[in-house]
Design a protein that fits this description.
By secondary structure, the protein is α+β, with helices and mostly antiparallel strands. It folds into three domains: about 1-55; about 105-175; about 175-260, no CATH class. The chain has four helices and five strands; from the N terminus they run αααβββββα. A five-stranded antiparallel β-sheet has the order 1-2-3-4-5, with helices on one face. A hairpin with a 4-residue loop joins β4 (about 215) and β5. α1 (about 5-130) packs across α3 (about 155-170) and α2 (about 135-150) packs antiparallel against α3 (about 155-170). The longest helix is centred in the first third of the chain and has 127 residues, at about 5-130.
């Protein structure tokens, strides 16, 4: 083979090698491009996956916060419910206590009502046997008490209060020094007179012209005329009781117990 032929073969081989290298370079470039694309696709997928993970994490944190808030609210609500239950239990006990008291009141009423009737009867007898101080007012008070006991719009407690009040008024007659004007029944006639009493010790009446004076005798249940020596003492006693004279010693007739 000639040198020229060898040179041609070498050139041809060189061209072929260059072409093969170029083809290999092209193939490597394509592979690299594909690899880069695959890496980019993987990175993008990883990025999206991370975004999803982040979103899920945020949702998880939010749900965890809501859960904790719900748990806290549940505990608070449970404590509040326990508090309300205590109040309800206390109210139930109060209701039961009130029901027991009401039942007791009904039983008490059953005993008080007959007692009040007896008290009024006793008061009526007492007024009839007592010295006739303000007798008409006292009899009227007793009659009003009987009407009160028959009134459905007045509570038992108020009825009982009025009965006790009447007893208190009667008790005060035993300590009061007072004068008043009223009708004096002398049997054969009735006149207007001034009355003065020192508790239940003495009850004296004087005519308005101050010329006559009488004393009540509770044993005979009648008025007895007094002598003229009692005209001025009775007049002074009436003035003292009305605060028209300063309180001072005076002479009034007193019937001793059992005296005839």
């Amino acid at each position: 083979m000639s040198k020229f032929s060898n040179k041609k073969s070498l050139i041809a081989s060189t061209i072929i090698g260059a072409l093969a290298l170029t083809a290999s370079n092209f193939a490597s470039a394509d592979a690299l491009s594909e690899l880069q694309k695959a890496e980019a696709s993987t990175f993008e997928a990883s990025k999206k996956s991370q975004q999803k993970i982040n979103s899920i994490y945020e949702q998880t944190i939010e749900l965890l916060g809501e859960y904790r808030l719900t748990v806290d609210e549940g505990e608070t609500l449970s404590q509040y419910n326990d508090h309300i239950q205590l109040m309800v239990n206390d109210q139930l006990e109060n209701i039961q206590s009130l029901e027991d008291q009401i039942a007791g009141i009904d039983k008490t009423k059953q005993g008080i009502v007959p007692l009040m009737y007896k008290m009024i009867d006793t008061l009526d007898k007492f007024v009839a046997l007592d010295i006739p101080v303000n007798i008409e007012n006292r009899k009227e008070r007793v009659a009003n008490l009987r009407d009160v006991l028959g009134a459905s719009d007045i509570s038992v407690s108020e009825q009982f209060r009025l009965v006790l009040e009447a007893y208190e008024i009667e008790a005060n007659y035993g300590t009061v020094f007072a004068a008043y004007q009223g009708e004096l029944d002398l049997g054969d006639r009735t006149i207007t007179a001034d009355f003065v009493h020192m508790g239940r010790v003495a009850l004296v009446a004087q005519s308005l012209d101050m010329k006559n004076v009488w004393v009540w005798n509770n044993e005979t249940r009648g008025w007895e005329a007094l002598g003229d020596e009692y005209l001025k003492p009775t007049k002074d006693a009436i003035a003292m009781a009305r605060n028209q004279l300063p309180k001072d010693l005076t002479k009034l007739p007193v019937f001793a117990a059992g005296a005839k």
